Amino acid sequence: MFKNIRADIRCVFDRDPAARNTFEVLTTYPGLHALMHHRVAHWCWTHGMKYLARLISFLSRWFTGIEIHPGAKIGTGFFIDHGMGVVIGETAEIGNNVTLYHGVTLGGTTWNKGKRHPTLKDGVVVGAGAKVLGPIEIGENGRVGSNAVVTKAVPAGATAVGIPGRIIVKNNEETEEQGRRRKAIADKIGFDAYGMTDEMPDPIARSIHNLLDHMHAVDAKIERMSSALGELGHKECTGELPELKTELDGLDGTDSCK
């Protein structure tokens, strides 16, 4: 138990640049206080002293504003930043090096006995105000965005945002040329994508990117059709498409049949 507490103190310095020294952390960090109380309460809970465990948990909530049921299982390197309003249910399981911000709830969705609270694997980060509900699993190094409400499992390395929680996964296969091409198409039609970039892989942004890719494919196909009709002597292709504002070779949007 005391070994875990030492690891909990060390992790504060790794994740909070405002931490200055051990004495300050030990005396002024409510997240650490709540966790230290929980270590003791959990030991009592697992050794049959359940009322004492609940009493320690109750007093800890009174002094820190953080409620952790003594039955919850918490690994090493757990960090609660700020902490006020955090609630962790009885059957919650938290791995190593997990970070929670203030207002987070790891809650249940049923009154039935048994596993009813979330499992957070190693390296998970849950943003301020997020609610993770039910016996679901947040995979290793998963992320939950601030104020999200998550009721379905989150794969390892993925991020859940919004209400209800939507799973987003960064597409590392996207190339720089694709990004430039999308911007060229957006400029062509006068569309401002609300600051959405590949570094913000929201499902809405991904849908817009797919539409821009589709428009580029349609433009290219129309150009090829116009060229083929022009070679056959068809003279009806007299209109012009707006020129793309791009320096990419082969992405000129002018009609080849002028």
List strands and helices in order, with pairings.
Layout: H1 2-15, H2 22-28, H3 30-46, H4 50-64, E1 67-68, E2 73-74, E3 79-80, E4 87-88, E5 93-94, E6 99-100, E7 105-107, E8 119-120, E9 125-126, E10 131-133, E11 137-138, E12 143-144, E13 149-150, E14 159-161, E15 166-168, H5 176-189, H6 203-231
Parallel strand pairs: 1-4, 2-5, 3-6, 4-7, 5-8, 6-9, 7-10, 8-11, 9-12, 10-13, 12-14
Antiparallel strand pairs: 14-15
Helix pairs in contact: 1-3, 3-4, 5-6
On the 0 to 100 scale, the average pLDDT is 80
- What ranges have pLDDT less than 50 throughout 5 or more consecutive residues? 193-200, 246-258
% residues in beta strands: 5-15%
Q: How many strands, what sense, and barrel or not for the largest sheet?
A: 6 strands, mixed
N to C succession of SSEs:
HHHHEEEEEEEEEEEEEEEHH
Order of strands across the widest beta sheet?
A: 3-6-9-12-14-15
The count of strands amounts to 15
- Looking at the overall shape, the CATH architecture of the largest domain is 3 Solenoid
CATH superfamily of the largest domain: Hexapeptide repeat proteins
Shape summary? elongated
Number of domains in the coordinates? 2
Give the distance, in angstroms, between the N- and C-terminal Cα atoms.
79 Å
Separate helix tally = 6
CATH topology of the largest domain: UDP N-Acetylglucosamine Acyltransferase, domain 1
Structural class: alpha/beta
CATH level 1 name of the largest domain: Mainly Beta
Helix content: 25-40%
Radius of gyration (Å): 27 Å
